[in-house]
Structures are given as C-alpha cells and as structure tokens.
C-alpha cells in the first residue's frame, strides 16, 4: 500500500512464545493535529501540520490507501498544538484549509475538485492581527458554502466569538461579525470553538466564561448564518475553574435540525442534544462526534488510550494510543480514525 507503514502492537512481553499482532494501524507521516474531510464525491482528505508546513494526504478508495502527502502551504509562525492547527472542510467543487499564525491572521487555501495543487487565497480576518489565540473551526454545506468561527480580540482586546461565511456565488469571505460577546468581558481564551452545518442550519459551540464558570454554550442559525439565536448553555452542571481546560468539544446537526454536542466537564465526557438531558459517557477529554446523526459515536481520550463509544450501546472500543483523535464515517459500517502519536499521524479503519 502506497506510503503506509504497518504499526506493530506487542500484546505480551517479548519472549519466544510472544504473540505479535499486525493491526490495521498505519503511519500517514510526521506531523500533528490532523483533520479529516469527505467531499461530495467521497474523496477523503487528511490535513495536518509539521513545523510551519501544512500537508494533505488524499484517498479515493474509502481510506483503504492514501497517496503521498502533498504540501498545502508553508506558513511561518503557524499555530500548532492543543487544538491549534490547520482546519479543513470539503464540499462539491472545493476543499478549503485555514491556518492561523501567531501574528493573529487567518490564512486560507483552496483546492478545486480533481486538482493536485492548493491555491493561496489570502486572509479571512478583516482586521489585521485580530486572532492571535489561534483557535478556530470551519464547516461547509454540500453546495460550496463555507463557514468559519474563531476567537477574536478586535473588541477591547478580549476574546469573543467571531464569524464569517464564504458564498459559492461570491467566492469571497463576508465581513467578519462578532456573534457572541461574553457579559464577563471575554469567553474562555484557550478552548477551540466548533462549527456544524446542515442545509441552512449553522451551529457553533464555544466554552464561555461567566461568573468564573467555564461551561459550553451553543449558538444556532436557521438562515445560513445571517443571524443567530440566543446562546444556550450545555449540560446541567457548571465548572468553576481558575484556568483553562484546553478542550472545546464537538458539535453537529442531528435529525430535525437538533444540535448534538459532546464535551468535557471536570474530566468527564457528556453528550447533549437540544431539549434533552445530558448523557454521561465516561472519564476522559478531547472528545468528538462521528457516525450517523441517529446513531452518534463519541471518540475521546482516556489517559493515553483513544476510545470510541456508540451512544446506543455505551460500549467502548479502543482505537489506539496517542492524542487528538478525529473520525468520520466512511461507509455504512466503517469509520476512519486519525490521531497523533509520538510526532506521527496514525490512521485506522474500524
């Protein structure tokens, strides 16, 4: 298989009778902070960072094999680590990567469907240096409309939630808008916001900071991001914390446009959906959502072990060892997981 290495898991101690199992865990290449997307044609892309370089590996056979990683861009001073890293979204004609630098600017790059090279397109934030924290997310519908959310300090030099959209018709990012401003001066500065898109519904999740509590809140738009409803707190409890958990959770749009979320509070993972009580998943952090909207699957880190759990069964399965796992459902019964481990990007189909 092109550009893949087998990863060997030693199940017992090294003796003459040791059992050695060759697993379907592979090394994509050196790097950190992977992201996955699947476009309308089923092409899978994995984007990740290495020093100041952004690399992309592509698969056209449902992630069974990937081609050699190609250079997307080289961005001096690129943020990389703890949720800070290149972001990726794909639709029909385009895939888009965003990269934040330490000077506070958001660079974006575009690849047309079927093209080999990525194009540098400019800067998304329309106030220079307004995004120094390096925390953002992007999403797309299936009609080449893209949406971005990030932490921005343009108001009073305090982090608030900023938003912009890229219309397939205009081909340019709209004027940036602050869509949430914390009543306690700023939101949590070190947790990555997340975004989900389905048709005209756009949902954003971020960790707030109100009265010393760092709880997750969501914003929802039903008109393609033109306006957002009032922010809603996720979960029943609260987390008083003098510090930052560096953990923003994940969000997506479920059936009937319900917002589905997963997040951590006090080292415990929860799932929550509009109008329903929170559901306890287990101890862990850095969680994300995958699977069909009616059958959510949560991935998370439990100490050094990466796990997945179907909400319907509450049974956890081990993905591998490492950090920052991302996942996507590839076929009816197969998932692709990517994560970072010892400076390498690992991949596994389950």
TrEMBL record:
Entry keyword set: Signal
Protein name listed in UniProt: Exo-alpha-sialidase
Cleavable signal peptide: 1-18
Biological source species: Mucilaginibacter antarcticus
């Amino acid at each position: 298989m092109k550009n893949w290495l087998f990863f060997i898991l030693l199940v017992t101690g090294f003796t003459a009778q040791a059992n050695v199992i060759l697993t379907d865990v592979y090394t994509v290449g050196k790097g950190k902070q992977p992201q996955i997307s699947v476009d309308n044609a089923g092409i899978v892309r994995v984007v990740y960072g290495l020093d100041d370089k952004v690399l992309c590996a592509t698969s056209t056979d449902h992630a069974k094999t990937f081609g050699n990683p190609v250079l997307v861009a080289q961005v001096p001073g690129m943020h990389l680590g703890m949720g800070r890293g290149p972001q990726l979204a794909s639709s029909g004609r385009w895939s888009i990567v965003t990269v934040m630098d330490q000077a506070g600017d958001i660079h974006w790059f575009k690849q047309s469907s079927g093209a080999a090279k990525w194009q540098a397109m400019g800067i998304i934030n329309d106030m220079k240096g307004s995004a120094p924290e390096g925390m953002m997310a992007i999403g797309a519908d299936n009609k080449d409309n893209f949406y971005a959310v990030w932490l921005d300090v343009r108001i009073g030099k305090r982090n608030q939630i900023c938003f912009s959209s890229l219309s397939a018709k205009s081909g340019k990012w709209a004027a940036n808008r602050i869509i949430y401003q914390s009543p306690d001066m700023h939101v949590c500065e070190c947790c990555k916001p997340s975004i989900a898109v389905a048709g005209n519904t756009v949902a954003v999740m971020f960790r707030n900071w109100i009265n010393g509590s760092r709880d997750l809140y969501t914003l929802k738009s039903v008109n393609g991001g033109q306006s957002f409803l009032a922010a809603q707190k996720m979960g029943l409890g609260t987390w008083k914390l003098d510090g930052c958990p560096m953990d923003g959770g994940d969000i997506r749009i479920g059936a009937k446009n319900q917002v589905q979320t997963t997040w951590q509070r006090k080292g415990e993972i929860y799932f929550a959906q509009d109008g329903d009580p929170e559901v306890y998943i287990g101890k862990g952090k850095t969680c994300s959502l995958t699977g069909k909207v009616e059958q959510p699957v949560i991935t998370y880190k439990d100490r050094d072990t990466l796990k997945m759990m179907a909400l319907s069964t509450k049974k956890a399965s081990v993905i591998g060892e490492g950090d920052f796992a991302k996942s996507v459902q590839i076929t009816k019964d197969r998932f692709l997981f990517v994560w970072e481990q010892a400076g390498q990007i690992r991949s596994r189909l389950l």
